[in-house]
Design a protein that fits this description.
mainly alpha, Ribonucleotide Reductase, subunit A, 18 helices
């Protein structure tokens, strides 16, 4: 060290800008030319254009930002206890949180694994750094959600259900759906799963209903802990969306990728609709006691965030690059929510499964009936008698009635693609793969299994796509 140069003088020197730091970090990466790089995570895509990191994130700015977020989260949880939150929270809402928090940490940790995959595949070093930061984000999300579950268990008056969520997750007919959602991030073609399914569709479109609508409804029910945690999670999503879009533009740059991208957008949108709308729609509409007729219903939120913000402003512009958008699937998803009562039939399915649930589902009341009829005209004629039947089970001396007693409910088949029950009976269909018959909730899910996840797609070999195999259906385990 030269004379007069001390540690204090070194640390006192003016730092370089974030943009320059990002450029220097990129210079540290290299691709060896003396060996052929092993294809650790296979993909059928060709990515020749080097994607750019839109956020230019480096560790120096990243970790202080995340530390501040965590401090706010844990401080708010402490404040909620001091303010006697659990004396005011609605029991109906907290019961549904037992299922929700049993599921959501798993997709988050799957997303962390997915980012490790796509970071290896991204050419150049700039976006590779972005995906690495996103991987750390997902670890953080899973950890604070697990902590939230533990916090509920330690402080809520009825912790039963929270205490067994990890064990119940792998053995519950409902959490099977969440497992399919999370496994979609890491199975099959690495770009299909980690970038298109997760970042381009799930995080760009459906995290609004998951991480914005859910916290809003939680606050209406006196729960201020879940909004604190999940809005902190949502604050990271803008960077994730930027990463996914940058990678998407690099993929579109090669016309040979267009065929695969059209396939994956179709598959990913429908799977997210089938799974996320089934779960989050039910939590929001049936877990709440707030029946303010001026608030938006789930389908109104869906129209604003999924149809207007995502489909019209994100998907449609892709057509100018030559990408075919499957408009009919978006319309079919909307019809399932509005005309075929998809969310309400899923809630009905969960309710009749009460003997094996690790959470309680409260019966709907006359106040709930009035709100549902206001938001979903015709709801009472189709579901009113069912919920009156369900309420009788809370009356002492009544017979415990199962699936097909009194109300005529027939347990539905399970969809092999999305793992959701085939509750829209008129859309139920059957397909054959490798000499075996499979059941599906819709023609779109049938297409996913019989066409998309095969060794060849429209005459093009797709060896990296993977298959739907194994013990996937809860009822068969």
């Amino acid at each position: 060290m030269s004379t007069g140069l001390t540690l204090n003088k070194i640390t006192a020197q003016k730092g370089i800008s974030i943009a320059e730091a990002t450029s220097r970090v990129a210079d540290l990466g290299w691709t060896p030319t003396y060996v052929q790089e092993a294809e650790t995570f296979p993909t059928d895509y060709r990515i020749s254009k080097i994607p750019r990191d839109p956020m230019k994130q480096v560790l120096r700015s990243y970790f202080p930002m995340q530390e501040e977020k965590d401090n706010r989260v844990y401080g708010a949880l402490d404040a909620a206890l001091r303010g006697d939150m659990f004396r005011n929270v609605e029991p109906r809402w907290v019961e549904w949180m037992k299922l929700f928090l049993a599921i959501i940490p798993f997709p988050e940790i799957s997303a962390a694994r997915a980012m490790a995959m796509v970071a290896r595949l991204a050419p150049g070093e700039e976006l590779r750094t972005g995906f690495t930061m996103q991987m750390v984000d997902e670890f953080r999300h899973s950890t604070i959600q697990m902590n939230l579950k533990k916090w509920y268990m330690e402080n809520y008056i009825d912790p039963a259900g929270f205490d067994i969520t990890e064990k119940a997750f792998g053995k519950c007919y409902a959490s099977t759906i969440g497992r399919q959602f999370g496994e979609g991030f890491i199975c099959g073609d690495a770009i299909t799963s980690a970038n298109v399914y997760l970042t381009v569709v799930a995080e760009t479109a459906f995290t609004n209903t998951l991480f914005v609508a859910m916290p809003s409804e939680a606050a209406r029910n006196g729960d201020y802990a879940l909004p604190t945690v999940f809005l902190s999670v949502q604050s990271d999503e803008s960077r994730h969306i930027g990463n996914g879009h940058s990678m998407l533009m690099a993929m579109i740059n090669d016309p040979s990728n267009h065929q695969l991208l059209e396939r994956d957008l179709k598959y990913a949108f429908w799977q997210n609709h089938a799974i996320v709308d089934a779960a989050i729609g039910t939590f929001i509409e049936y877990g709440t006691t707030n029946r303010d007729k001026n608030k938006e219903s789930y389908v109104e939120l869906w129209h604003r965030w999924i149809y207007e913000d995502y489909y019209r402003t994100y998907m449609l512009p892709l057509e100018k690059y030559g990408i075919k958008i499957h408009h009919d699937d978006v319309a079919a998803a909307w019809d399932r929510l509005v005309k075929k009562n998809y969310v309400h039939k899923i809630a009905q399915f969960f309710a009749v499964g009460w003997p094996v649930n690790f959470w309680r589902i409260e019966a709907q009341t006359e106040k709930d009936f009035e709100w549902f009829e206001h938001k979903y005209p015709g709801w009472y004629a189709e579901f009113g008698d069912f919920w009156k039947w369900y309420a009788r089970k809370s009356v002492p001396g009544q017979t415990n009635m199962l699936f097909d007693q009194d109300n005529g409910y027939v347990y539905p088949h399970r969809c092999w693609s999305c793992m959701c029950p085939c509750v829209i009976r008129e859309d139920f269909c059957v397909g054959e793969v490798d000499g075996k018959l499979y059941t599906y909730c819709s023609e779109q899910c049938k297409w996913t299994h019989t066409v998309a996840f095969q060794a060849e797609y429209e005459g093009r070999p797709t060896p990296a796509m993977g298959r739907f195999k194994g013990q996937r259906v809860w009822e068969d385990c």
